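haha ok so turns out i had the wrong file open the whole time. this is the CORRECT one, sorry everyone. sequence first:
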Amino acid sequence: MNIDFSSFDMCRILVIGDVMIDEYLWGEVERISPEAPVQVVSLVRDSSTLGGAGNVVNNLVALGAKISVASVIGTGDNASLLLTLFNDLGVDTTGLIQDANRPTTKKTRILAGHQHVLRIDRETKQEISQAHAARLVQFVQERMHSFNVILLSDYGKGLFSEILLRQVIDVARKNNKSIVVDPKGLNFKKYAGATAITPNKKEASLAAGIEIVDDASLIKAGQKLFHDIPVEKVLMTCGKEGMVVFEDGKDPFRISAEARQVFDVSGAGDTVLAVLGLGLATGASFRQAAALANVAGGIVVGKVGTATLSREELRRALEPTLGGLAPKQKTLSDLILITQRLRAEGRTVVMTNGCFDLLHIGHIKLLSASKKMGDVLIVAVDDDASVRALKGEKRPIIRAQERLRIISALDSVDYVTLFSTGKLKHVIEALQPHILTKGSNYTTETVLGR
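then structure:
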């Protein structure tokens, strides 16, 4: 797949949808409340990020696109936080309308250790007023010429009335703009006229009224949606089974997913919508854009929590020499952010390091035993110059990129990174793993970073 990633900088995309705040409260549970048989969570850390359609925006900005967002939000502290999060990303927020009678949607997740204890939703599903709908349509009409693609992210919070959808889709079609919808609910006919809808398998099953239990029922459900709803394409996302494109006059087009370790599926649909739209904005065909979105979705499910991806991650995942192993290979700066998040979520991070020049059974046992000591295993691999300094001028036998790929292929390994001569101490201090492991040929006194 030939993708000019520099063209992402030229893409201007409008995201219309249910924007919200995702709040995370991490804590520890040590006792049961004397007031009721419930856990007492002692708060350790909290954080907030963009959720819903805001996560679509976050993904697009991370890839370099220029984004405008349109929605209806509330007033007060939550609205101010939402605006700050958008402004920090450099997003155009002139399409956001504030309504003092409407809450800003906020989902608070309380986590203790590895457990998701509780979720609190502050929201309304009441339809927005006709006056606010008219203002949104006016904004779309006035600005449509400046956008390459329009993305609609429907979370069922009352933004998308049938009238608003009809008018926005009509404006896009009159201006020959692609408009892609991540749908919600049972009535997909309200999205009539869109370029494409992107339901997941469960959503497609419910909307089509067909239980998807095998490949035949999946095809039947997808074809029913396509024939019942006047859209150009239906892109059904099927998790580990990849995607299927349904379009007029052609057999269903299957896009296989790379086999990946899944940590969290939160926000994967947002990433698919974002990258599909970005691909279309660059001039790629729908199938090319869908294939790119499939790769992107596969990367983010390998991360913990709602996450974005970078151009570099996408580029590496498309390299035929790396394929599905690329998401495991991280820079030190990437791993610093990952380990911070893992520690905040109560996960135990284990790290080991070595040359791994000619992998042998001792290495396999070390890595397997290391993974059993925690939740996530990071392996730091010496670069070629470091191996040469340690092993002699005729080493390494296997070059660094090949050694990274070999280590990445092991199920026990979650992430790998390359480090240079004399930099191991810096890597350990930066990542601050809970547990540091070494082979039996080391003693406690000789282990760096103990």
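Residues 332-446 form a domain with the Rossmann fold fold (CATH 3.40.50.620).
again sry for the mixup
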